[in-house]
Write a structure and sequence with these properties.
The complex is a heterotrimer of chains A (233), B (284) and C (358).
Chain A: E1 2-13, E2 16-27, E3 31-35, H1 42-50, E4 57-62, E5 65-66, H2 72-77, E6 80-82, H3 95-106, H4 111-117, H5 133-145, E7 151-155, H6 163-180, E8 183-187, H7 191-197, E9 200-205, E10 208-213, H8 215-220, H9 222-229
Parallel strand pairs in A: 3-8, 3-9, 6-7, 7-8
Antiparallel strand pairs in A: 1-2, 1-4, 4-5, 9-10
Chain B: H1 3-30, H2 37-54, H3 57-79, H4 88-110, E1 126-129, E2 132-135, H5 136-158, H6 160-170, H7 172-177, H8 182-208, H9 214-229, H10 234-254, H11 262-273
Antiparallel strand pairs in B: 1-2
Chain C: H1 3-6, H2 30-47, H3 50-53, H4 57-83, H5 91-107, H6 112-134, H7 140-157, H8 163-166, E1 172-173, H9 187-190, H10 193-216, H11 218-228, H12 230-235, H13 241-266, E2 268-269, H14 276-289, H15 295-310, H16 319-333, H17 337-357
Antiparallel strand pairs in C: 1-2
Classes of the chains: A alpha/beta (233), B mainly alpha (284), C mainly alpha (358).
């Protein structure tokens, strides 16, 4: 069943059209990858879905409800959460304090399971700006996963990490989402990892949808091969 | 409203224009809201007093901005450069502390009594302008202020240094990579900003007299102008400064009972409507 | 590390039948709450003896004025520390409340208690209105807006057109009928520092306790989160506007209490209470003392009032020179203020000693 749906979503900054009439749907419990070259509009699209950026035209639905005009706060409380490409944490707070703060608001009863799954246990008492970048990324993702969201929008969870660490992070995310029955929209640069962990993949190019379908279909799609994947296919 | 009243507004606005453009320049490049700007203006007026009594007002017109330029250099080198990593609010408060010191310094040197500064004899009369006779000194103030403002704009948009200043104000990091000497530009801008405050203080001295409490009023007005004009926007500050001067006089004529509230009402309305100010692009 | 790590969750149980685990808690449990309140009561009782230590009426007067300014400084410090909002307009609530008391008693003939209540609630209403317009824009814009509102109110009370009500530059005296009392104190009691001290000191301790509680509570954590990263707080499901408005209002209410007490103790309210320099001095007292502490702002205010009396001279007060120096030194060399730096030094020394002994 469709959980989160975008209809003709368009975002313009001045003369530049960053996202151009994108139709998109995420089904319940599905990990949906979004790939595309730099400037394809992936991050802007995530901003549009999460309510960070106002749409120029188009609509966003959560189930049957039109949520285009709803605030990020409203969306979060009804099950749409997100992480950020540029790590967004509460720098001067301890890891514990910030996770608990989010957990309280989102009625999370198993904060410890999230902490454990993302291996954050040993950092709970540390200020968030005193731990490594990779650990901060995991705090960011933990905050998105806390509170049993229905769909979590992950904007390059592996950004700034090494290739191995990034791949491991994605496997982690997949496990967590499956265990908690959370759907995910996953924007990622590492195409191979996306094909490995995602159930469905959408390719954006120049703000529009180039292809969408199962990883195998997308991998075999000639337009995608030509435009983006090159030798990777 | 008659022409004389309009000219009063313009002369008040012209002074605000000069003070505020310096404040806006410093904010644009340094990111510092210079809470000591009013004190610099006051020092300008006192230097004008000292030079006028010893030599003549015309020397003060050159001398005061030069002295204040040196004060600006000290401010930049000894203070702003050392705390540039601090938050903008902390630096603003440090500048506020410096203003307190300057104020006491002025009292220590010149005492706390008001010091009248006579306008030069050649300008003590009135000129007839479009059928209205008006104090000639004020007309000269308006003239000087506009010449300085135009020169400043031309310099910023036509000269190489001006280009570098604009680049550094827009994005210091990138400008520095592109070979702009941001430190040098900061020094120039703070010196110039202080010198402009000194010039305004000198020009104002003959009609407001030098007084140790003259800094707060002009500071608050200049801060309002810079915020309304758009933090860091020099053109925005100039236009708003001029407009605020005229508005204040208009307020005195048409709504005298609440006229002093006009600048505040303007600021509050603008910030609520456009938090980034009229010409501003950044919100910090 | 403690309880959270020991709980190893194997499978994820059904959501609704599990109680909230230990991990979901705040920095305020029953034990720390009791300790805090105990400390507050003890501090209050000890402080009652202050007038007998400061034996002269002159010194007692400084204590009273210092405690009142201390409330304003505390209110600024709370807002700055918890919300990161630096207010240069706290005089609006302080001065606003003081003026309301003066107008209500002298002009309208209200009873002192009713006038005090009007001042307090008036300050709250003012704080809600001004806060609603200011807290939307943090950072430098907030400083400017609060400055503008504070100064607008100052310009308002000195307007010639409201001279009948506010006295313009002349100010207003605060007088009430000899047979009426303010919380059992007659006007002459109020004018005696040693008699008003328990009330002033009590208000100060209550305000400090409320700020401590608010800071330690979930509300305080949320304020800290919004200060650190407003966007993330919104994306975590929190409204970020209302908590800041609540913090602003709480802070304004504390300044209002100070204003009411000021009006009664000085028996005279002038536009001085609303000037830019009053706003600046209260902020400086808070910063120099240390905004991250409860003692710092009060100590800063006390020292300021003491200095103000000591250095007063005919050519304006030289206290400005010392406050300027103190402000610069603290901002440049002693982040956290004097009390905050002493705390850090103390912790550092304790750490050194522990390492040496082990």
């Amino acid at each position: 069943m469709t959980l989160l749906k975008a209809e003709g979503v368009t975002v313009r900054y001045g003369a530049v059209t960053a996202v151009d009439a994108v139709d998109f749907a995420v089904d319940e419990g599905v990990i949906h990858g979004v790939i595309g070259p730099n400037g394809a509009g992936k991050s802007t699209f995530m901003d549009a879905l999460s309510g960070r950026r106002r749409l120029t035209t188009g609509k966003v639905f959560l189930g049957e409800d039109d949520i285009t005009k709803r605030s990020p706060t409203w969306r979060r409380l009804r099950g749409i959460s997100r992480s950020f490409q540029q790590t967004s944490v509460f720098a001067a707070m301890t890891v514990r304090a910030q996770l608990e703060m989010v957990a309280r608001r989102t009625k999370e009863r198993h904060l410890d399971s999230v902490i454990e799954a993302l291996a954050l246990g040993q950092y709970l008492g540390a200020r968030c700006d005193s731990i490594s970048y990779g650990d901060q990324r995991r705090v960011d993702i933990a905050m998105a996963l806390v509170g049993h969201p229905r769909v979590v929008l992950l904007d390059e969870p592996g950004a700034g990490l090494g290739a191995d660490e990034s791949a491991r992070m994605l496997d982690h995310v997949r496990e967590l989402c499956n265990a908690r029955e959370v759907a995910a929209v996953l924007v990622e640069h590492d195409v191979d990892s996306v094909f490995r962990v995602c159930d469905k993949v959408t390719v954006l190019q120049l703000g529009g949808v180039l292809a969408s379908g199962s990883p195998a279909d997308v991998r075999g799609n000639q337009a995608v091969v030509k435009a983006y994947l090159g030798s990777a296919a | 409203m008659n022409l004389a009243q309009l000219l009063n507004g313009i002369s008040l606005g012209a002074l605000l224009m000069i003070v505020s453009s310096g404040l806006a320049m410093i904010y644009g490049l340094r990111g510092v809201m210079n809470f000591s700007h009013g004190a610099l203006y006051m020092v300008g007026a006192y230097v004008a007093f000292a030079v006028t009594t010893k030599v003549s007002f015309w020397f003060a017109l050159i001398g005061a901005p030069l002295v204040l330029g040196v004060v600006g250099a000290i401010l930049e080198l000894a203070v702003f450069r050392r705390v540039e990593k601090r938050s903008p609010i902390e630096v603003a408060l440090i500048a506020f502390g410096i203003a307190l010191l300057i104020e006491r310094g002025v009292v220590a040197i010149w005492g706390s009594n008001t010091k009248p500064v006579p306008a030069p004899a050649a300008l003590s009369g009135t000129w007839t302008f479009l059928g209205t006779s008006y104090p000639s000194y004020r007309l000269v103030v308006i003239g000087i202020a506009f010449v300085v403002a135009i020169a400043l704009v031309v310099w910023l948009w036509r000269s190489r240094t001006g280009l570098h200043i604009r680049a550094a104000s827009h994005d210091g990091g990138t400008a520095s990579v592109m070979g702009v000497n941001v430190d040098m530009m900061s020094l120039i801008v703070v010196c110039l900003g202080a010198a402009l405050a000194g010039l305004a203080g000198t020009l104002a001295a003959p009609f407001v007299s030098a007084d140790p409490s003259m800094d707060t009023a002009i500071l608050i007005n200049a801060l309002i102008v810079v915020v309304v004009g758009g933090l860091g926007s020099i053109a925005g500050a100039m236009i708003t400064g001029l407009a605020l001067g005229i508005l204040q006089v208009l307020g005195n004529v048409y709504v005298p009972s609440v006229a002093p509230l006009v600048p505040y009402a303007l600021l509050i309305a603008i910030i609520l409507w456009r938090p980034q100010g009229l010409a501003g692009t950044r919100t910090q | 590390m403690s309880a959270v790590n020991e709980r190893v969750a194997t499978a994820t149980p059904a959501i609704d039948d599990v109680p909230l685990p230990q991990a979901v808690r705040t920095g305020l449990n029953r034990r720390s709450l009791l300790i805090g309140l105990g400390v507050a009561v003890a501090v209050f009782l000890v402080g009652l003896a202050a007038p007998s230590v400061a034996s002269s009426t002159y010194n007692q007067g400084i204590l009273v004025s210092g405690a009142i300014l201390g409330m304003v400084a505390l209110s600024i410090a709370f807002l700055a520390h918890r919300s990161g909002l630096v207010s240069l307009g706290q005089t609006a609530f302080y001065g606003g409340a003081a003026y309301l008391v003066a107008i209500a008693t002298t002009t309208w003939g209200w009873s002192p208690l009713a006038a005090g209540a009007l001042g307090f609630f008036g300050a709250i209403v003012l704080a809600v209105i001004i806060g609603a317009l200011c807290v939307r824009t943090p950072g430098m814009s907030f400083v400017m807006l609060t400055l503008a509102f504070g100064q607008a109110l100052y310009q308002f009370v000195i307007l010639d057109s409201v001279r009948k009500t506010t006295g313009a530059f002349d100010g207003l005296s605060v007088t009430f009928a000899p047979n009426t009392t303010f919380l059992g104190l007659t006007q002459s009691d109020i004018a005696t520092p040693s008699k008003i001290w328990p009330l002033v000191w009590g208000c100060l301790v209550v305000i400090a306790t409320i700020f401590w509680l608010a800071g330690r509570s979930r509300f305080g954590t949320l304020l800290e989160g919004i200060r650190e990263n407003e966007e993330r707080a919104r994306f975590s499901g929190y409204n970020t506007y209302l908590p800041r408005l609540a913090a602003f209002t709480l802070s304004g209410a504390a300044a209002g209490v100070a204003g009411v007490l000021f009006a009664f103790t000085s028996a005279y309210v002038s536009p001085d209470v609303m000037t830019f320099s009053t706003a600046g001095n209260a902020l400086i007292a808070a910063i120099v003392g240390g905004v991250g502490t409860l003692i710092g702002p009060v100590l800063g205010a006390l020292v300021y009032v003491w200095g103000q009396n000591k250095f007063a001279s005919t050519s304006g007060s030289n206290i400005d020179f010392y406050t300027g120096i103190a402000l610069i030194i603290v901002l440049v060399f002693l982040p956290g203020g004097i009390v905050g730096s002493l705390e850090r030094l103390f912790r550092w020394a304790k750490g050194r000693l522990r390492r040496r002994s082990s």
